[in-house]
Design brief:
Order of helices and strands: HHHHHHH
Structural class: mainly alpha
Radius of gyration: 18 Å
Largest sheet: none
Strand content: under 5%
Helix content: over 70%
Oligomer: single chain
């Protein structure tokens, strides 16, 4: 599969990453091995990070402007309204959605867009939370597929650090400390 990906080239690969709402790891793990010889590891990470930003922006636009009106009408017919974030809670809601383990990134994008999270805040929080996972996926995948133990351990350490940071933030928020 990697030979086919390499032959297609990085442009098509990162375009697919930006447009296809698959789990992030499906793209980041093979990307380092496929394109590091051509772009360097930092170039692959940069291209992945840009593709993620485009995917997040497109998901927001689609959910906010294409999905929200029919969903709002359906919810209103049942006597309810679609919840909206406020300026006071937008950052906390965006961080909570992005740092909650389990749901795919695309689902979080749709939830935040439907709740009318301000776009700039949404994109900044979403991209910054995704960035450690992008770096970890590329480094871990390169190390795993090259048999490079130091890259493998670096990627695994980055995954662990991202998980620990998210857990500490959630714990702090559930205790109600500022």
């Amino acid at each position: 599969g990697l030979g086919w990906v390499r032959a297609a080239g990085p442009g098509w690969y990162f375009l697919a990453m930006a447009l296809v709402p698959l789990p992030l790891a499906w793209f980041t793990v093979p990307a380092g091995e496929a394109f590091a010889p051509q772009l360097g590891l930092a170039g692959v990470i940069g291209a992945c990070a840009a593709a993620v930003a485009v995917q997040q922006a497109l998901a927001y636009w689609f959910a906010r402007y294409a999905l929200r009106p029919p969903i709002a009408r359906a919810v209103e017919r049942r006597g309810h309204t679609v919840p909206q974030v406020t300026p006071a809670n937008a950052l906390s809601v965006a961080l909570l959605v992005r740092l909650t383990p389990g749901p795919p990134m695309i689902l979080g994008s749709c939830l935040l867009a439907l709740a009318a999270t301000p776009f700039r805040l949404y994109l900044l929080v979403s991209w910054l939370v995704a960035l450690p996972w992008v770096c970890a996926g590329v480094i871990l995948g390169r190390g795993l597929l090259q048999g490079d133990l130091s890259l493998l351990l670096s990627g695994a350490a980055l995954v662990g650090a991202a998980m620990l940071a998210a857990r500490l933030w959630r714990r702090r928020k559930t205790r109600g400390t500022p």
